[in-house]
């Protein structure tokens, strides 16, 4: 060990070993934080072996500035006090950074059960909300102090190795050793990528095999994914022919014979009903939280009672794991295409949307959000796709009883919604409002005195407050003159957690959906398989709207619907198509796999996929990608 450190590049070797050690301990901590991961001995061995490779490569990137500095520093300066001081100071700063990142990884894993990914990259864009959320959720000063103490505890015993100088060297000698050290990051850049950590069918094993810092920069570099480059493809004409067959339904007619045009004429089933619609998209409300879906938490007494008087959909699946994905599915009725949501992509203006259809039918359409709508590009997206955006800036201070970093309390958002409905009613104009809540989100804080769990009440308290606020809203609405002519829709944007040992854990996409309008909708249950993208056409079908549609979803209540339904679920890389009990998963590198989905999310890899379902999946996802490219003028 003395021979390794007592030389010109000894400090570089020391820092590389330090980084690898911290990364290995972080991996072990994340493993211990996931006791129900189902990892085998082979998974563990692979995770730590592959992880070591990523750790060494990431450490080599960090070492580049130090290697260049040690190479070019003259011998006299190298042996001076200034150099030793700079080296000690730099070591302390870098060590603190690495320990800080290790703690940040643990926090991120605690919420997402994943290494840094797309979400972490997006969060850096919205530092106010994210840093505020962390400050309100964790004892930040105490954590920073502990990190500082740990940093000094590691650094102090290492000072003597940093002071080691070793024998004098000539520039030619230093250039040779530097070239060998720099070859590692150069070769890694040419031949290594984040997908090589995917070695197991167990998602936890693949996440553990990665390195958080490496994964972060890989996600940053690949925040746009070209479907045609990375996924299984079919001839464009074949895809559109198949897609039109999937979208063709009784009672609909394609407008043109152009095989690339999916525009259909939808004819209402009776006289149009110009009812107000309030569509509440609840933050992170998994179906498993509601008693009407089998929960014993007793956290949603009002929603469970409301379900008895509503049309309750028992098997609805979100398209993704983020709010922007949920809003995309509800608003645009499109599959979750690879990469980031369309809500945040450039050139996402004037897409065919639910807001556009309502506006064409004379409605006042608004997106109402309790936070600041610049987050996730929501204000821009909705303002350019058929809605007026109403966010935290629009809510008078006197109407705000409570707020945290994510937004005002749900009850205050609903107060603003009531005002908007009153204004539309006074103008004799039907109203469609898409309301996005924030209270059911870490740090799980809410107004005191509303429920029997003091704030912050953790996930259960936040759910119970969410339930209270919806009850309060509908009871206040009940006294309004427009109540009898209003449809209330409650759905989640996504589940509370999406992670599991499978790449796509089906139960972690299961969300509630209930539609309540006592004067217009007969209570009941819908047990067929439904995708979040089906909500828009189903809602318009309930209102008997006639319109031209470019939606990918279907009206699941249409009397002609005969099959058992399907759902589209995905992450930013994995694209899933669920039909019956088979899940087709499309992945980068043109991979196509099919799984039999059993009880408790057990997934069995099928040696032979159902070709029809594979073709269905490709038609949906490739078709959606091609149509968005055409919208942007990127395809012919």
Structural summary, described in words:
This protein is of the alpha/beta class. It has 2 domains: 2-221, no CATH class; 236-557 and 564-631, Alkaline Phosphatase, subunit A (3-Layer(aba) Sandwich), CATH 3.40.720. It has 22 helices and 19 strands. A hairpin with a 4-residue loop joins strand 15 (566-570) and strand 16 (575-579). Helix 3 (41-72) runs parallel beside helix 11 (203-209). The model has no long low-confidence stretch (mean pLDDT 90).
In short:
This protein is α/β, with parallel strands linked by helices. The chain is 45% helix and 14% strand.
Task: Explain the layout of strands and helices.
Blueprint: H1 2-5, H2 10-32, H3 41-72, H4 75-78, H5 81-112, H6 118-125, H7 127-137, H8 140-155, H9 159-163, H10 171-191, H11 203-209, H12 212-221, H13 227-230, H14 236-247, E1 252-254, E2 264-266, E3 276-282, H15 301-308, E4 311-317, H16 323-332, H17 354-360, E5 364-369, H18 378-383, E6 388-390, E7 403-404, E8 407-408, H19 410-426, E9 431-436, H20 458-478, E10 486-492, E11 510-516, E12 524-526, E13 530-531, H21 535-542, E14 547-549, E15 566-570, E16 575-579, E17 582-587, E18 591-597, E19 603-605, H22 611-631
Parallel strand pairs: 3-9, 3-10, 4-12, 4-13, 5-6, 5-9
Antiparallel strand pairs: 1-2, 2-14, 4-11, 7-8, 10-11, 15-16, 16-17, 17-18, 18-19
């Amino acid at each position: 060990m003395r021979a390794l450190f007592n030389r010109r590049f000894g400090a570089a070797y020391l820092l590389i070993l330090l980084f690898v050690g911290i990364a290995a301990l972080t991996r072990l901590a994340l493993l211990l934080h996931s006791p129900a991961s189902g990892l085998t001995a082979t998974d563990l061995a692979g995770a730590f072996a592959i992880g070591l490779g990523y750790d060494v490569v990431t450490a080599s990137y960090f070492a580049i500035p130090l290697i260049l500095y040690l190479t070019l520093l003259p011998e006299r300066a190298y042996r001076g006090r200034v150099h030793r001081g700079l080296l000690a100071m730099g070591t302390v700063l870098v060590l603190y950074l690495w320990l800080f990142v290790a703690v940040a990884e643990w926090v991120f894993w605690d919420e997402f059960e994943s290494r840094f990914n797309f979400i972490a990259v997006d969060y850096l864009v919205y530092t106010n909300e994210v840093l505020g959320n962390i400050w309100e959720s964790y004892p930040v000063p105490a954590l920073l102090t502990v990190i500082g103490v740990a940093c000094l505890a590691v650094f102090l015993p290492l000072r003597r190795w940093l002071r080691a100088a070793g024998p004098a060297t000539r520039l030619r000698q230093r250039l040779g050793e530097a070239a060998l050290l720099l070859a590692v990051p150069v070769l890694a850049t040419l031949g290594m990528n984040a997908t090589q950590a995917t070695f197991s069918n167990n998602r936890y094993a693949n996440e553990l095999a990665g390195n958080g810092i490496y994964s972060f920069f890989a996600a940053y570099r690949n925040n746009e994914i070209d479907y045609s480059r990375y996924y299984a493809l079919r001839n464009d004409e074949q895809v559109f022919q198949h897609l039109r067959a999937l979208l063709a339904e009784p009672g609909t007619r394609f407008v043109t014979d152009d095989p690339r045009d999916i525009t259909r004429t939808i004819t209402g089933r009776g006289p149009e009903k110009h009812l107000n619609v309030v569509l509440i998209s609840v933050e992170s409300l998994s179906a498993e939280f509601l008693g009407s879906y089998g929960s014993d938490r007793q956290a949603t007494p009002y929603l469970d009672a409301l379900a008895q008087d509503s049309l309750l959909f028992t098997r609805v699946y979100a398209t993704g794991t983020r709010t922007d994905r949920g809003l995309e599915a509800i608003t645009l009725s499109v599959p979750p295409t690879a990469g980031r949501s369309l809500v945040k992509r450039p050139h996402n203006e004037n897409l065919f949307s639910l807001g556009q259809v309502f506006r064409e039918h004379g409605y006042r359409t608004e997106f109402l959000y309790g936070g600041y709508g610049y987050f996730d590009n929501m204000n821009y997206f909705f303002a350019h796709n058929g809605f007026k955006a109403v966010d935290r800036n629009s809510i008078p201070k006197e109407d705000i009883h409570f707020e945290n970093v994510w937004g005002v309390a749900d009850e205050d958002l609903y107060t603003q919604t009531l005002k908007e409905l009153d204004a539309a009613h006074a103008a004799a104009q039907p109203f469609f409002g898409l309301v996005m809540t924030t209270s059911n989100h870490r740090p799980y804080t809410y107004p005191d005195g509303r429920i029997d769990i003091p704030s912050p009440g953790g996930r259960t308290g936040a759910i119970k407050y969410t339930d209270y606020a919806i009850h309060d809203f509908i009871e206040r609405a009940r006294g309004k003159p427009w109540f009898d002519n209003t449809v209330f829709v409650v759905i989640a944007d996504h589940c509370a957690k999406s992670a599991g040992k499978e790449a796509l854990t089906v139960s972690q996409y299961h969300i509630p959906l209930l539609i309540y309008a006592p004067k217009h909708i007969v209570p009941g249950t819908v047990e067929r398989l439904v995708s979040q993208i089906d909500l828009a056409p189903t809602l318009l079908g309930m209102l008997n709207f006639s319109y031209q549609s470019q939606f990918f979803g279907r009206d699941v209540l249409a009397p002609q619907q005969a099959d058992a339904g399907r759902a589209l679920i995905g992450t930013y890389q994995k694209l899933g198509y669920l039909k019956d009990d088979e899940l087709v998963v499309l992945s980068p590198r043109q991979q196509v796999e099919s799984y039999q989905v059993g009880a408790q999310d057990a997934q069995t890899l099928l040696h032979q996929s159902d070709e029809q379902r594979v073709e269905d999946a490709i038609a949906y996802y490739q078709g959606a990608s091609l149509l968005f490219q055409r919208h942007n003028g990127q395809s012919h």
